[in-house]
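Troubleshooting: if your tokenizer reports a length mismatch, compare against these two reference records.
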Amino acid sequence: METSQTLSGRIRTLREQRGLTQAAAAVEIGISRAHLTKIETGRDAPGRATLMAIAAYFGVTLDWLTEGVGEKLPAKALNTNEAALLAAFRRMPDSEAEAFLRYALIRTDGAKDA
């Protein structure tokens, strides 16, 4: 999908990629089919709540949807363990962080416990 499309084009392409009619997509987004038609043809600009609903339904970022810039997919949220590991890593002095990364990369390459 080209990011150089307009907002209306990106929305239409997302809908078509899912194989949805305008009526089906409108129900899922929570707007009328007529409103979605106007949005997809550029005759109406969606409000903030509608943009957020469209982005959430299609699983894309608002920046990508509205401007065609940045990452298309939102970053995956960290689980509790990942967040704790990241926080601990950020508190490490640089030398410890480098050693930790070397160890972690070795471990992910299939090294066995001694």
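Reference record two:
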Amino acid sequence: MNDQLRIDYLASHLRAVQQAVQRGVDVRGYYCWSLLDSFEWAEGLTKRYGLVHVDFESLKRTPKKSFQWYADVIAAQASTPAAG
């Protein structure tokens, strides 16, 4: 599933975290979660949040494009030597 807006959103937030670290903020991690993730039911389950699509009938979970993008970002960070 293509969810480019979510990728753009995450990328902008990760850039902001990176800028904060460069300015000396002690960032220990970043958790990909939104308060809205808990409120899908408020929209009658018509709005979908998160990195994984859930088919409510079969309960099959399908990673979205943003899931793979985020996994790639994490992998790239893991292979980069820590600064400092």
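Descriptive notes for reference record two:
- Residues 4-22 form the longest helix (19 residues).
- The chain has two helices and two strands.
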